[in-house]
From TrEMBL:
InterPro entries: Aldolase_TIM, TAL/FSA, Transaldolase_3B, Transaldolase_3B/F6P_aldolase, Transaldolase_AS, TSA/FSA_arc/bac
HAMAP family xrefs: Transaldolase_3b (MF_00494)
Protein keywords: Cytoplasm, Pentose shunt, Schiff base, Transferase
The organism's taxonomic lineage, starting at the top: Bacteria, Bacillati, Bacillota, Bacilli, Bacillales
Organism: Priestia veravalensis
Catalytic residue positions: 90
Record GO cellular component, one term: cytoplasm
Pathway assigned to this chain's UniProt record: Carbohydrate degradation; pentose phosphate pathway; D-glyceraldehyde 3-phosphate and beta-D-fructose 6-phosphate from D-ribose 5-phosphate and D-xylulose 5-phosphate (non-oxidative stage): step 2/3
Protein name, per record: Probable transaldolase
Reactions accelerated catalytically: D-sedoheptulose 7-phosphate + D-glyceraldehyde 3-phosphate = D-erythrose 4-phosphate + beta-D-fructose 6-phosphate
GO molecular function terms noted in the UniProt entry: aldehyde-lyase activity; transaldolase activity
Alphabetical list of SUPFAM superfamilies matching this protein: Aldolase
Top EC class, one word: transferase
Amino acid sequence: MKFFIDTANIEDIKKAYKVGVLSGVTTNPSLVAKEGVKFEDRIEEILKIVPEVESVSAEVTPDAETAEEMIAQAEELIKINGGDKNITIKLPMTIPGLEATRYLSKKGVKTNVTLIFTVNQSLLAARAGATYVSPFLGRLDDISEDGVHLVSKIAELFRVQNIDSQIIAASVRHPDHVTRVALAGAHIATIPYAVIEQLVKHPLTEQGIEKFAADWKNAVKS
Ligand code: E4P
């Protein structure tokens, strides 16, 4: 399973990229709005600082309601940073979103169908040609459903049906989500920087580092 970072925050993206485990970036209208910057400018900035990833998802804005409006936005987005091959157009799981996914995937543009909450939605997105499908596990957990179970059913479906769309486990809230979606067969987990830090840390690792340092200091003294 690969890691994407789920943010539009430049500092967090830079930190995660430097660690060397990053394969992509996902953004959404809420994440961009939180940054208080112009959408296209932020996507361009992101594309420039992560040249070696496979995908940077830019979501069509909520005012694009028809497939034509979504496609028109996508056609502007794919020109950013000189037609960067990493740009991935993120589209909502709606009828117009599927129509736009089909159109763009036929043109060779990478797509990510977002806001997936059922196995059937993932099948539709895959058949529309989505490069990526994004089930939101945390939001399912929030309503007392099992988000990881959804990811595992989608992984099973894609295996059985020989589908090559990649599953991005999204709305990941904590390290246990990461372990469980990796075991469930997600290709990618998109996670906030705070979760990357949590994945690194363990109290015994910290204690071990402190003990090595103390023993080393004592040995150097004697
Ligand atoms: C995924 O692409 C979304 O941006 C994201 O994971 C949503 O997560 P949230 O439910 O924490 O907002």
